[in-house]
Each structure stands twice: as C-alpha cells, then as structure tokens.
Amino acid sequence: xxxxxxxxxxxxxxxxxxGPTSVSxxxxxxxxxxxxxxxxxxxxxxxxxPGPNETLTSIGDPYYPGLGNGGYxxxxxxxxxxxxxxxxxxxxxxxxxxxxxxxxxxxxxFGSTEPVGDGLVVDAVRVDGAPARWDHDGEELIVTxxxxxxxxxxxVVEVEYSGVPFAATSRALPIGxxxxxxxxxxxxxxxxxxxxxxxxxANDHPSDKATFSISVTVPAGxxxxxxxxxxxxxxxxxxxxFVWEEDDPMATYLATVVVSDRYTLVRDxxxxxxxxxxxxxxxxxxxxxxPPAPLGRTAEMVGVLSGLFGPYPFDEYGVAFVDxxxxxxxxxxxxxxxxxxxxxxxxxxxxxxxxxxQWFGNSxxxxxxxxxxxxxxxxxxxxxxxxxxxxxxxxxxDEIRERTRQVxxxxxxxxxxxxxxxxFAGGVYQRGALTxxxxxxxxxxxxxxxxxxAYTDRYAYGNVTTADFVTVAEEVANRDLxxxxxxxxxxxxxxx
Length: 496
Ligand code: ARG
Ligand code: ZN
Hints:
Blueprint: H1 5-18, E1 72-83, E2 89-99, E3 106-109, E4 120-127, E5 130-131, E6 133-137, E7 140-144, E8 154-163, E9 167-169, E10 176-181, E11 187-190, E12 210-219, E13 223-226, E14 229-235, E15 239-250, E16 257-260, E17 263-267, H2 269-275, E18 278-284, H3 285-289, H4 298-309, E19 316-317, E20 319-322, E21 328-329, E22 335-338, H5 347-356, E23 365-366, H6 373-409, H7 426-443, H8 445-458, E24 463-464, H9 466-477, H10 482-490
Parallel strand pairs: 1-12, 18-19, 20-22, 23-24
Antiparallel strand pairs: 1-2, 2-8, 3-7, 4-5, 4-8, 6-7, 9-10, 10-11, 11-16, 12-15, 13-16, 14-15, 17-18, 21-22
The structure holds arginine and zinc ion.
C-alpha cells in the first residue's frame, strides 16, 4: 500500500506530541533576532540558461521529461479567471517571456492526457498581439508565431480558454493535483508538483520562476484570494474582481487561488506590526471568529525561523484552511491546510513546516525535482528547531530519537534521489531532516547556522541544487563534507 509522505510526517509528529516531549517550557536555547524585511529589492527573475537536454516540449528534467519546455524563459504570468455558473471558468493568461534561442515554435504545458469531461479548451492564441496557430494535444499547447522569434527577444503569448477545471492524478505521488472543490463549496488549487498547468498555460517547471498577477472575477458576495498582495478590488454589476500581485519570483507549482462565499481576508495587525510583513489569513467565518491558538503565534514563528535562517523572504504571509485536501502545501505567501488540521494537536508543527518552506522551496527553489529534499528535509528540520525553541535541547534530542526510530521502523530510504513516482517519500522528509541534524552535530551550532544563512542569502529568489548546498556548507565550514552528505543523502544504510 502506498502512503502519502505527509501522512508519515503527521503521524510521526502526532506520536511525538502525545509523548513526554510535548511543549513543557518556553526556554529558548537558540538565539533569535527580530525580523527585518529584506533590505535589498529582489533581482528580476533570472534568465534561465538553455539546458543541454531541453527540447520543444521538455525543459530537460530527467525525472519528468514532460514538464517544462525549452527555448524560452518566462518573466511574468498575468492570469485572469472568471468563475461562471456550473463550475465553468473563462481563463485569459498572458505569458511574458524571453527567448533563449531563436524560436519558430514554442510549447506551453496546459491540460491533461486524462481530462475530466472536455477539460479546458483553448479558444484563441496570440503572439505579440497577432493571432497565432496552435495545436493543443494532451498536456502540450504548441504555438506557432506568425514569424520566428529572434534569440534574446521578449515576447508575449496570450491564451484564451474555457471549461470546467479538474484535479488529475499526479505523476509524482498517488494523489490528485490541480483544481479542487471542497464539500463546503470552496474552490482551490494544489499545484505541487505538476498541477499548475491544469489551470493556466505555463512553463511548468520550478527552474523557470516568474512574477505573477492573478485576477479572479467572482459573483458579488464571493471572495477570491491568491498569492501576494491584494492590490485591487473592482465591484461591477453582480461581480467582484480581486486582483492579487506576487512581485517576487515564484515557481508555477506555488501559484494558488482560493475562492469561497464563506471566506474573508483576516488581517493580523499585531503580527504584521511585530514582523514587518503583512500577515493575513483567508478564513471561513467560524475559524475567523474562533481561530486555533497556534495561528496566533505566526509572529513568534516568523521570529524564531528568521533568527535562524535569515530574513523572511517575502512581503506577506498567511494561511488558508480548505476542506478535502488531506494535507498542507506551502503556496508562496499563502500556505493551504486541510480544515481538519485546524484542531489537530500537531497544528503548530505543520504551521512551522509550511512557514519554513517560504525560505526552503519558495525563495530557494530546486532546479530539478530530484533535489526535493532541499524543500522537505529543511522544512521537517524546522519542526525540530521549533521543538527546541519551545522545549530546549532535551526536547530536540528526544524528538530526533523518536524520528530516527521511525525511519528505522518504516524502513525509510535515503532522501537524495527518491523514486520519480514517489517524490514525497517519507525518507525525503525524515531522513532529509536527520541529514541536517548530522551536519549540525558535525560542524557545531555557530558554523551550522552560518551555513544556513549563507545559503539562503546567496540563493535568495533563485534556484538551487544539492551541490549548491554542499558547496556552501564546505565553504563556510572550510572542510570537505562529501562523506557525510554521500552517506546521509544516498546510502541505503542509515548512518549512525
Ligand atoms: N510540499 C508539501 C509539504 O509541505 C507536500 C505536497 C505534496 N503534494 C501534494 N499534491 N499533496 O509537505
Ligand atoms: Zn513540506
């Protein structure tokens, strides 16, 4: 039987929380400093160098050759959705990109090889304002511009589409990704790793980050949230358009929308004042009126993590609770949680986990899916740091022992190169976190946290590989660490 990795994570955390290691004191053994917003403006989305393996319909990631496309680098997505009756949407996505080679054709990822019903149908495509020919087959939308695009040219592709969006089975884990509708009627997106192109045409690979504007038109009385900041709200006859802007580079899998007539935007003024970022949550009225206690600790969590990892990378943070999802996902600046987690005893650890992803995964994004432990191992390690901040070193050590026991009991494998069909394997999370525990023990606290901060600073808003992290670690520690990383990341045998 296959099980979702997060189930293992949650189970392990639940076991820990019911044991004697649960929060008992507030002694802080690790120094924290107050958060300051990033002092320098982030660079524009980097221009991706053309990869050696890229083709028209592949960016060349051996784990999932169907994802991403060659020949161009997206700078920005402007996504406009209108929600119509019967679950239908009208979509209009503008992709602004730069060619990395001369192009007479280009491909966008869009749709599914196994659509539900008619899926999403392309109605028109334009390149630089001129109607273009297109061929939409399965997951690829191949566009032929009226004239070839020169190397290094900026170009704009507009795609109009319509239909009823849906969720489809991911190629990376045995559950769905894409467009969901919960029993309460809330609609939302789960993009990681291959669901983004189920709702907008994209270069759907984390190595091509871009800025986003997401605008959602809904019936009056309905609320729509997306990543970043709500920059405009336009009331018309019978409709409202919510315009959201994420002006820091974002991977496609982190783009989201949450739509419901039961939800509102709840600003947390105290947390905003304390952190210097805009803290806002997207909540149904029952949770807005009676929020779970750990949600009131966002500023504290941002304080602890930014003290250890470096400044929080984005301008906003918050969460949304949605039903029917089953786990949690770190969408950039707006993490999603299953509603059932709201009263789970492990909620604080899941909140810390998804918050930690804003550094590890969202600001520093894997260049290839094989290195997913750079997300999940680090976010799981952050749970241990929160336990340490709460309960001191003894609680931290107890938790490590408990997780080590589980890695052995479940036979969790090495985190470095999980099977492409089981990308979120338990070992990626738990043995990934233990890899960082081992590194910390090996180099000592001062060097270890210097490594983390050098890493988040050097690669902020960009892409990373495992080799990048190892290089920073070896540079800062000023010694060879290859034996440690090889054993922890790739050896079937769990090191001592
Ligand atoms: N990144 C998520 C986490 O924090 C896991 C996402 C798995 N993907 C999914 N479609 N559920 O653990
Ligand atoms: Zn995670």
